[in-house]
């Protein structure tokens, strides 16, 4: 029986993680659930999965639901609440599925408490990859990728030695605007951007897919997860999202991981590794798929991807600043304050002005995050 806690249980990854838990009731027990503000869904999850502890985004929300919780369930709130769910109680495994760098302190707390991590929250590694990976090594915990591309690479590398890797390639669907030119991007709406062709995901990551920022964040995530230099990490457009990513070895062999796009597969693998269990995901028929297509990544069409990789190579607080600016710009686009193309401009402007600090401490990272957010809001 594995005891798990989920940070972001009411989101797209959080609910799919609970789907996986529900399919294997004899193997998993839920210790803690942390939500943001969707208290109705959280209460439903509490009735169904019977966690011992829950948390919501604010004290006001906690006061709203206090009387509706079964006796004995501990209730927390805010950033401190996230840390409580991550590191309090007696879970052996924490799934980090909140959106954004708000997940950093709680992820570090979970690692410090000696828990294995199923990592969906890529912003954590982008913001402070050196701190997270150093702490993972020091505590000897497992950091298992949930992001489909990274799960694919992780599966392809099973038992292979690092010296034999020539390169890894992350595939990209191209997002909701993959068939539009930059000129045609001028007048696109929030609704257009939220219509992803292959995956149903949270709003922020769906916008990140349309700007290709998501692939940029994933390149940085891969750099930290697999300890590879940026020169060995490539990206390739693959509109069908069937090959989730692949590794090329020095003997020219390529190993890829394939499947229909369904996040429950990488989520479950992160939970059951090194075992593989039965999954309800629809089986892939290559005969039915018929044709898989690929295109070279177009960095002129997706300038934010180029910028993200440059920030990765610069290191230090460059990636912290990139992530913080992007979180603010995407939130402003979703509130209809700025146009789609303004997201990229804000990234360029913020990075143009940001004085990069190398080897930042946690406090310096949080300070950078705050300063950049204020700047990105003011532009
Ligand atoms: P969602 O927006 O669907 O879910 C985000 C979750 O975080 C919700 O449960 C939300 O709560 C919670 N949350 C937000 N703010 C806070 C806060 N301040 N305190 C506590 N909880 C908070 O996002 P996704 O599930 O799509 O993505 C989550 C992470 O996983 C992201 O980092 C994303 O990049 C990554 N990811 C997602 C994939 C996907 O298929 N969705 C694929 C690969 C990676 P509430 O809704 O109650 O407000
Ligand atoms: Mg991904």
From TrEMBL:
Reactions it catalyzes: 2-C-methyl-D-erythritol 4-phosphate + NADP(+) = 1-deoxy-D-xylulose 5-phosphate + NADPH + H(+)
Entries under InterPro entries matching the protein: DXP_reductoisomerase (IPR003821), DXP_reductoisomerase_C (IPR013644), DXP_reductoisomerase_N (IPR013512), DXPR_C (IPR026877), DXPR_C_sf (IPR036169), NAD(P)-bd_dom_sf (IPR036291)
Magnesium recorded as keyword: yes
Keyword Magnesium: yes
Pfam families, sorted: DXP_redisom_C (PF08436), DXP_reductoisom (PF02670), DXPR_C (PF13288)
1-deoxy-D-xylulose 5-phosphate reductoisomerase C-terminal domain span: 143-226
GO molecular function: 1-deoxy-D-xylulose-5-phosphate reductoisomerase activity; isomerase activity; manganese ion binding; NADPH binding
Annotated transmembrane regions: none
Protein keywords: Isomerase, Isoprene biosynthesis, Magnesium, Manganese, Metal-binding, NADP, Oxidoreductase
All copies of domain DXP reductoisomerase C-terminal, residue ranges: 258-374
Recorded metabolic or biological pathway in which this protein acts: Isoprenoid biosynthesis; isopentenyl diphosphate biosynthesis via DXP pathway; isopentenyl diphosphate from 1-deoxy-D-xylulose 5-phosphate: step 1/6
Chain segments annotated as coiled-coil in the UniProt record: none
Membership in a protein family: Belongs to the DXR family.
Function: Catalyzes the NADPH-dependent rearrangement and reduction of 1-deoxy-D-xylulose-5-phosphate (DXP) to 2-C-methyl-D-erythritol 4-phosphate (MEP).
NCBIfam families, per database record: Dxr, PRK12464.1
Protein name as it appears in the record: 1-deoxy-D-xylulose 5-phosphate reductoisomerase
The species this protein was found in: Paenibacillus sophorae
């Amino acid at each position: 029986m594995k005891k798990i806690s989920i940070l972001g249980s009411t989101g797209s990854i959080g609910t799919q993680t609970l789907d996986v838990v529900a399919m294997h009731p004899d193997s998993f027990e839920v210790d803690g659930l942390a939500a943001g503000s969707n208290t109705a869904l959280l209460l439903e999850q509490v009735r169904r999965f019977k966690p011992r502890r829950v948390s919501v985004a604010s004290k006001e929300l906690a006061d709203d639901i206090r009387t509706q919780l079964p006796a004995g369930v501990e209730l927390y709130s805010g950033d401190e609440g996230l840390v409580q769910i991550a590191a309090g109680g007696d879970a052996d495994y924490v799934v980090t599925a909140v959106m954004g760098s708000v997940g950093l302190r709680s992820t570090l707390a979970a690692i410090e408490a000696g828990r294995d991590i199923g990592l969906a929250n890529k912003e954590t590694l982008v913001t402070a990859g050196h701190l997270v990976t150093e702490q993972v090594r020091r505590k000897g915990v497992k950091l298992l990728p949930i992001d489909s591309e990274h799960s694919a690479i992780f599966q392809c590398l099973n038992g292979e030695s690092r010296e034999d890797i020539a390169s890894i390639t992350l595939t990209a669907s191209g997002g909701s605007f993959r068939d539009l030119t930059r000129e045609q991007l001028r007048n696109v709406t929030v609704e257009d951007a939220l219509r992803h062709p292959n995956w149903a995901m949270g709003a922020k990551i769906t916008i990140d897919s349309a700007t290709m920022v998501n692939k940029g964040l994933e390149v940085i995530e891969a750099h930290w997860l697999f300890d590879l230099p940026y020169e060995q990490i490539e990206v390739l457009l693959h509109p069908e999202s069937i090959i989730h990513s692949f590794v090329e070895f020095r003997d020219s062999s390529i190993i890829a991981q394939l499947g229909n796009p369904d996040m429950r597969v990488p989520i479950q693998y992160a939970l059951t590794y090194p075992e593989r269990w039965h999954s309800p995901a629809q089986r892939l028929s290559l005969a039915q798929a018929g044709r898989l297509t690929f295109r070279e990544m177009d960095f002129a069409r997706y300038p934010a991807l180029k910028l993200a990789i440059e920030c990765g190579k610069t290191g230090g607080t460059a990636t912290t600043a990139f992530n913080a600016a992007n979180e603010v710009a995407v939130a402003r686009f979703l509130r209809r304050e700025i146009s789609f193309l303004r997201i990229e401009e804000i990234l360029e402007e913020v990075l143009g002005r940001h004085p990069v600090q190398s080897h930042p401490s946690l406090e310096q990272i949080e300070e950078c995050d705050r300063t950049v957010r204020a700047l990105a809001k003011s532009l």
